[in-house]
Structure formats: C-alpha cells, structure tokens
Write a structure and sequence with these properties.
Helix content: over 70%
Number of helices: 19
Oligomer: single chain
Structural class: mainly alpha
Strand order of the largest sheet: 1-2
Radius of gyration: 21 Å
Low-confidence stretches: none
Mean pLDDT: 86
Strand content: under 5%
Shape: globular
Largest sheet: 2 strands, antiparallel
Length: about 500
Amino acid sequence: MIAANLPALQVVLPLLGAVLCAFLQRGVWAWGIALVVSVAMPFVAAGLLIQVLDGGIISYAMGGWEPPIGIEYRIDVVNAFLLLLVSVIGAVIMPYAKRSVEKEIAPEHQPWFYAIYLLCLCGLLGIVITGDAFNVFVFMEVSSLATYALIAMGRDRRALLAAYQYLIMGTIGATFYVIGVGLLYSMTGTLNLADMANRLEGIENSRAVLAALAFLTVGISLKLALFPLHVWLPNAYTYAPSMATAFLAATATKVAVYLLLRYFFTVFGASIIFTRLPVAEIFLILSLAAMFGASIVAVFQDNVKRMLAYSSVAQIGYITLGIAIANKTGLTGGIVHLFNHALIKGALFMAIGAVFYQIGSVKLDDLAGLGKRMPITMGAFVMAGLSIIGVPGTVGFVSKWYLGLGAFEQGWWWLVFLLVASSLISVVYIGRIVEVVWFRPVSAAAKRAKEPPLSMLLPTLLLVAATVYFGFDTSLTAGIAERAAEWLLAGIR
C-alpha cells in the first residue's frame, strides 16, 4: 500500500511537516520535525527510482480522475533521479541547519524558518513529480514564495532587497510561464504534459506553439538563472541565511533546468527544438557567456558567498551546454552535472557557512590564515573547490569529460579548448581563497576561530566525500544520467 502511494508521499510529507512546524513555539521542536521529514524523503525517492528502473514509467492519478482529465504525477528515470537528488540534499543539510539557524535566525522566527523550508522542499519536489503543466505553476509559486521568505530572513538588511529583486524577477518568470502554458492549452485543449506532447504533433510549427515555446523558455530561464537572466542570484545567495543558501544553490536551479529539459525533449520534441529552430545555437552562446563572464566576475569578488554565487551562474552554463550539444554524450554530461554541482556547491556553501558561524564574516580578508584555525573545514572547502575546477578524481572532472566527448562527437573540437579555458578561470578564484586561507598571517577575525560543531562539520565532510567517491564510481550518477539522456533523446519526433 505504501509503495503504491510513494508519489503522493513525496509531496504530502513535507507539506504536513510545514504545517506542524508553523504551530510550534520552539525552534528545536520545529527542527526535529523538519529533520524527520527530510530524512524520510530520500527513502521515498529511492523507492520511486527503484520502481522506475525495474518497471518503467509510473503514472499516479490524483483525486480519482484518470489522466489526462485529472492531475497526474508521472515519474520516469529523469525526474526520479532529480527527486533523489533534491531529497538527499535536504536530508544532509538538516543536521547542519540546527546550529547555523540558531546563530543567524532569531529564536521566535526559527519555527517559521523550518516551516518555510519544508514548503520550499514541497514545491521543488512537486515541480519535479507532477505531469500537469498548471500544477507545475502551482508548485513553482509555492517554492518561489518560500524562497523569497527564506532569503528575506537573512540578518543583513540587504537580504530584504535581495528577496525583493528575486520576487520581481521570479514574478516575471512565472508570468511568462503561465502565458506559455495558456497558449499551449488554447492549441491542444489539455494541461497534461504527456497528452499535450501527443496533441502537438502536426501543429508544432504554428505561431501560437512557437510563441508558447519562446515564453516558456524565457520564463524557465529566469528561474534557472541562465545568463544574462541571472541578476537576482548573486544577492540572493550572498545575503540569505547560510543554510538556505546551501539548500537553494544545490537544488532550486537544478529543478528549473529539469523543467526546461522536460519541455524541450518530451513536450515539444528535440527535433523541433534542435533541427528547425536555432535553440542550440542560442543556448551554446549563452552557456559560453555564463562560463566565461560569470567566472571572470567571480575572480574579483571579495565576499566569498558572492564569489560562489557567480560560480554557480558559470556552472549553470556547463549544464545548459549539455543541452546545446544535444547528443547523448553531451546531454549525459549536462544531466550528471545537475547531480555533481549540487554536491559541490552544497559542500562549498556549507563550509563557508561554518566559517560564518565561527567568525561572523565571509569577507576574503577576514579569512586570512583561517586554515591554521579550521584546517578540516578549509580542507573540505579546498577539496570541493578542486571539484569545481574539474580535477581528475572528482565529480567535476566527470561532468566536463562527458561534455568534452559530446563536443568531439559533434565535431566541435574548439569547444573542448573553451571548456578547459573556462576551467582555468575557476583555478584563479578558488586559488585566491586558498592563498588567503593557507598562506597569509592569521587575521584578527580568525584568531579565535575553531572547528565548527560536529553537527555542521560531518554533513559538510559527507558531501565532500561524495564529490570524490562519485568521481571514481560513476555507475550511479553517470549511469543513470546516460539512461535519462537516452530516454529524452528517444522522444525525438
């Protein structure tokens, strides 16, 4: 009975948890509920992934109405993989959250913080699992509103401005998305994504459908922070509470990329997107602009969280580059980088959050000599930084290897050189931090620093260990990503 209702549990559990947290008076109780729910989520997602790998697509009808009339939760190898990713990140971050939130959030606001976090988790998982276009919008708004609130709870007053900027950009993105869905509904008469894909055959070149594609692409690109629609992201990541930054950096943009994959490959069909329209060329240019432009801006940042935020924009460029390459190997590289970058950036932001917990600053000058006071934390940061660069033996290398092979298969040998060149820029900004932390005299801010509590250190080390382990054993990550890429490309009409 439980196995048959796992799709519903994936959304219901965090939603109920959020309601319970909102009624509690003490932050530690709310944290306990959020912890239990977050730890349960990976087991639900793993159960769904196993069912999909063994038996194929799962269709779960809601409310007794069979699809395409009723809302359908539809799970295939692509979104099962992403459900597991989002759930695992949430489970790993929650033990870390207790001390971090106690440091940065006022006691009376902590229950609300955990309630909002669970709503955000519910929204992200809902976007991934639903097979209904309007239901995607509903969950998108749930996750977005929760995200605005999480960012606004940062103790720096600039967090309010960052949340407001994201609110404006997010609202524009959601409006574009709804317009696109409305146009598709007017042409197909359905909101079920699978049914919509079938009904688009024969009318995919109509002006309304092409306009819908344009609106959906721009709207979703705002959500995933595709260059140059990324302007909301640096401030959001810089001023949000440390736990919120780590969670959002590892999950939110990945879910938006998934949504883009879903529409491109399974609704419109890759043959329309990549053979009849210049989508691949546009995404190639924007991806390269992100990889180089954002990385260069990151080099000149003095706030480490802002530096990592611009690094995230660049890494999104690598993911969308896999979409632009549009062959099995390249798409595998893009999909596997969804997983790999979540591990890397989660580890980096958790490490720098631990630094903020100890010294109250993430300014580069204040981190001088910190490696002598927090060697384990900063060692973990360096290892995750090596993975961002793409050093062999880390997950970052695996992603870039597949992207490079995909470029070669397309005959784009020049793109391989650009991949290497962009990676060298990341050497510079990671190298700046390494030089300051390990080779400068200890700053006044760092003199009293020490390793963070184990509840913060162990989750960080776990993600760092995963960046190394999955750099050698790629059977789970690249293996499932390859199956997902093959399944997406098989839908070419």
